[in-house]
Design goal:
With about 190 residues, the protein is an alpha/beta fold. It has 6 helices and 6 strands, in the order H-E-E-E-H-E-H-E-H-E-H-H. The chain is globular and about 65 Å long. The two termini are about 30 Å apart.
Length: about 190
């Protein structure tokens, strides 16, 4: 139902945030700021230049979602909401003047043809957290994702070699005259 569509939309918006990173910015998702707080920024980027501007992005996919966050985690030099265009139309009068917006139509998001467009510019703000803390928080998030990736790859690799070993056992004829194994047999068992 709605919950499913919601997480689907959230995921798509996060994917598009990764895609908009060029060579000029590095970024990562779900960054907890500091070591003891519970403030999690959906996505943070840092420009790769002498300014090292911090941009914060909050993903919102529904009206209740948009209203839920009392403590907003807009701590960057530039701060944005990321949302379906339809939601933007509903809440645009409630968006503070200094916060920008990236948006895309829901149907484009769900069909995978989406591309984020900046439809409202963000005004420059002073950082609301220490830059060092923001950087180390970003690094921690990147490390978490990296470990997750390594773990998944290891599990995939293990599962794959187990399957392969089983196949080899099934496939190896006991006696030479028991015939050979064809590719079809292997495909049937692998997929």
């Amino acid at each position: 139902g709605m919950r499913m569509a919601k997480t689907e939309l959230t995921k798509k918006l996060e994917e598009l945030l990764f895609q908009r990173l060029g060579r000029a910015e590095i970024g990562c998702g779900e960054v907890m700021i500091g070591w003891f707080g519970h403030e999690i920024v959906d996505f943070i980027t840092c420009t790769v230049d002498k300014n090292r501007y911090i941009k914060c992005f909050e993903i919102k996919v529904s009206k209740s979602d948009f209203h839920s966050d009392a403590k907003l985690t807009f701590i960057g030099h530039y701060n944005y909401f990321v949302m379906p265009e339809e939601l933007y139309e509903e809440v645009k009068t409630e968006i503070p003047y200094w916060i920008g917006v990236y948006a895309e139509k829901t149907e484009n998001l769900l069909s995978g043809k989406g591309e984020l467009k900046c439809i409202k510019k963000s005004r420059f703000s002073e950082l609301k957290a220490d830059k060092e803390i923001i950087f180390t928080s970003m690094l921690r998030s990147m490390q978490r994702e990296w470990f997750k990736c390594l773990k998944q790859n290891k599990e995939k690799k293990n599962k794959y070699s187990e399957t392969l070993n089983e196949l080899m056992e099934k496939a190896t004829p006991m006696k030479p005259d028991e015939g050979t194994v064809n590719a079809e047999f292997i495909c049937d068992h692998l997929f």
